[in-house]
């Protein structure tokens, strides 16, 4: 048995994020003070990455549209924030409280994920999208109308303050955790089952894939991580307001996933970081009525990218000019024959239909035994 | 008694508006097989067009211009955003529709600002009905919706174009083989849906005389609920679902204890209906094929 060659490429994203986090954490721990706005931006980027990666599990890999991702986050933010606020007097405002809040928020969101996953077993496509949207609005409405003592009602819930200098380190550790779970899941047989359901649910069922289990798994995991992002949000912002978690926020996360490329985890990470950075920068430039230009920009990105990536008429153009074709070219020029594509089998070019005349003309006579078989096929 | 009657009339008129929007949804969903998320926003654009053209002072001109503008807009959206994706995955079409909805909202906000615009189209006044004061505009809304529903049903059942629409809805490929211009039929469907949206915009302005960029978003989603309750693709179903939803909303607003949760109640109804009876009350069963 030879040791399986560790593919560096597969772990590149961990290493990049891990290194950046380690360097920044090292600087903080040795006493360097970052600007507060930069720390806040880092936290926001971490939250966005968790949200985008977890949404990409449902939209990109399971192939179902969820328009209620902000709703799961809302559940996590409120429950995690509330539990943290209750625990601070007894346990103190330390990592332990944070951990319990994370578990509670993520757990509560996961329960909601199961609840939404059950309709997902019966419904597909447009109907399911509407159900998730309805779920998001219901959650928002419930928290908004809660009494002042429970969840703060329309004024919002006040959550504990955590030392800003260290929060982003926890945030990025959570990003790594999310990445680890989602990426390893998608590279396992369970992940293959999830993409099989996306590509053809009936065929997946026919070949023995437990569709119920995997759909629920995808929805629950996705919701749990959205809940964790919510808890982070409540720690990062000191106050949680239900208005924030509306339909628009769900769309913003969807834009990240679509911009990053459906079914590409690294794409989602880059897009999430980029959009969050741009949002923060644009918010200072575009004020008042101009702020809406940002939404216009999102809308155009969504339409342009989806049409470009999916229009049947543009297929030839896409195959010629895209990033992975470009990367392939570079790889070929570097003479790397050992490279095997991992995540993106081109199902549309695999011939699945066998012509009738081909079947009829198959030569059933035994092969000439004088053909010598060598390594790598007949000579 | 008066409160009950006025709540009912209010529910009926609100239901009429929902029914009008749901008719557009159900036509487009039934024939183009896509959820046109931007449908609600066409209502909003219709409202803004009426706001602009009311400068002429003539409500009839304003309504006519709004209908024409919405039809042009609807057809343009279909040609630019949806047609290139015909044959692509439903997920892609749905995301594009959301993008279009977002685009229309932000464009309206850029052009007209975020503050709502006040516009009075026409004041019908009120009448006393069994002791309750009733807005005549509510009755007009209801009457127009019923007429539109009947005309649409007759159009679909008895005209050549209507039969062609049913054919495209049943089996697009077979319809094409029979010589039906599928793309043309889908364009006409979008034109009809957009015209209905313009009328719904008018009714909104008759009910509450202000228009803002988010006018259509929530009613659009609720009207989709109505279309689903009635059974998507069914014209009488859209009417039934619209009226039911309007009634629920109107009654729920009158009960103080649950009034803040009205939206949540309506959405819960949607989820329950989809789970228990995904084909609605009057919809046809569809079986998924490989």
Write a concise synopsis of the structure shown.
Chain A has 379 residues and is mainly α. Chain A has helices at 12-29, 36-62, 69-91, 95-122, 125-144, 164-187, 189-199, 201-206, 211-237, 247-260, 265-285, 292-310, 315-320, 323-333, 356-360, and strands spanning 157-158, 239-240, 373-374, 377-378.
Itemize the secondary structure elements and their pairings.
The complex is a heterodimer of chains A (379) and B (290).
Chain A: H1 12-29, H2 36-62, H3 69-91, H4 95-122, H5 125-144, E1 157-158, H6 164-187, H7 189-199, H8 201-206, H9 211-237, E2 239-240, H10 247-260, H11 265-285, H12 292-310, H13 315-320, H14 323-333, H15 356-360, E3 373-374, E4 377-378
Antiparallel strand pairs in A: 1-2, 3-4
Helix pairs in contact in A: 1-6, 2-6, 2-9, 2-10, 2-11, 3-4, 3-5, 3-9, 4-9, 6-7, 6-9, 7-9, 10-11, 10-12
Chain B: H1 2-32, H2 39-53, H3 59-82, H4 90-112, E1 117-118, E2 126-129, E3 132-135, H5 136-158, H6 160-170, H7 172-177, H8 182-207, E4 210-211, H9 217-230, H10 235-254, H11 262-276
Antiparallel strand pairs in B: 1-4, 2-3
């Amino acid at each position: 048995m030879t040791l399986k060659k560790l593919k560096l490429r597969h772990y590149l994203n961990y290493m990049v994020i891990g290194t950046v986090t380690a360097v920044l954490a090292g600087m903080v721990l040795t006493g360097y003070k970052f600007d507060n706005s930069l720390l806040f931006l880092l936290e926001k980027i971490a939250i966005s990455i968790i949200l985008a990666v977890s949404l990409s599990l449902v939209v990109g890999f399971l192939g179902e549209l969820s328009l209620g991702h902000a709703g799961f986050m809302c559940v996590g933010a409120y429950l995690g924030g509330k539990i943290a606020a209750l625990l601070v007097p007894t346990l103190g405002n330390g990592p332990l409280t944070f951990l319990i809040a994370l578990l509670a928020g993520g757990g509560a969101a996961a329960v909601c994920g199961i609840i939404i996953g059950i309709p997902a077993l019966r419904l597909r496509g447009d109907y399911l999208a509407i159900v998730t949207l309805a779920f998001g609005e219901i959650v928002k409405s419930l928290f908004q109308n809660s009494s002042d003592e429970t969840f703060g009602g329309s004024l919002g819930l006040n959550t504990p303050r955590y030392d800003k200098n260290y929060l982003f380190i926890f945030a990025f550790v959570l990003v790594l955790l999310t990445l680890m779970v989602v990426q390893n899941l998608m590279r396992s047989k369970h992940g293959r089952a999830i993409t099989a359901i996306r590509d053809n649910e009936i065929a997946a069922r026919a070949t023995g894939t437990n569709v119920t289990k995997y759909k629920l798994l995808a929805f629950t995991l996705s919701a749990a991580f959205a809940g964790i992002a919510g808890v982070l949000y409540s720690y990062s912002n000191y106050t949680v307001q239900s208005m924030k978690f509306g339909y628009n926020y769900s769309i913003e996360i969807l834009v990240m996933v679509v911009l990053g490329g459906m079914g590409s985890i690294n794409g989602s990470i880059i897009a999430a970081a980029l959009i969050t950075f741009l949002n923060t920068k644009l918010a200072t430039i575009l004020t008042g009525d101009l702020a809406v230009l940002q939404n216009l920009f999102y809308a155009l990105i969504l339409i342009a990218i989806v049409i470009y990536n999916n229009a049947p008429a543009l297929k030839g153009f896409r195959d010629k000019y895209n990033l992975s074709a470009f990367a392939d070219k570079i790889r070929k020029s570097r003479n790397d024959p050992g490279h095997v594509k991992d995540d993106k089998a081109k199902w549309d070019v695999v011939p699945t239909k066998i012509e009738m005349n081909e079947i009829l003309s198959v030569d059933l006579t035994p092969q000439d035994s004088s053909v010598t078989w060598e390594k790598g096929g007949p000579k | 008694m008066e409160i009950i009657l006025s709540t009912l009339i209010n529910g009926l008129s609100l239901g009429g508006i929902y029914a009008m929007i749901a008719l557009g949804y159900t036509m487009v969903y039934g024939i183009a097989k896509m959820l046109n998320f931007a449908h609600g926003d066409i209502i909003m654009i219709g409202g803004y067009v009426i706001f602009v053209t009311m400068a002429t002072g003539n409500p009839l001109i304003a309504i006519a211009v709004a209908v024409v503008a919405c039809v042009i807009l609807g057809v343009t959206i279909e040609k630019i955003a949806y047609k290139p994706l015909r044959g692509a995955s439903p997920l892609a079409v749905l995301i594009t529709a959301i993008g279009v909805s977002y685009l229309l909202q932000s464009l309206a906000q850029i052009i007209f600002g975020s503050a709502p615009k006040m516009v009075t189209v026409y004041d019908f006044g009120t009448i006393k009905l069994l002791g309750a004061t009733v807005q005549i505009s509510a009755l007009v809304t209801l009457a127009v919706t019923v007429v539109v529903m009947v005309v649409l049903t007759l159009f679909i059942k008895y005209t050549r174009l209507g039969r062609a629409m049913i054919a495209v809805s049943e089996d697009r490929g077979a319809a094409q083989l029979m010589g039906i211009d599928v793309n043309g039929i889908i364009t006409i469907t979008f034109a009809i849906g957009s015209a209905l949206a313009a009328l719904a915009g008018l009714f909104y302005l008759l009910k509450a005389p202000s228009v803002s960029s988010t006018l259509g978003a929530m009613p659009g989603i609720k009207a989709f609920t109505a279309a689903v309750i009635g059974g998507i693709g069914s014209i009488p179903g859209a009417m039934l679902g619209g009226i039911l939803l309007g009634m629920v909303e109107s009654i729920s607003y009158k009960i103080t204890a649950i009034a803040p949760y009205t939206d949540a109640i309506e959405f819960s109804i949607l989820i329950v209906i989809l789970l228990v009876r995904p084909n609605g009350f009057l919809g046809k069963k569809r079986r998924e094929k490989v």
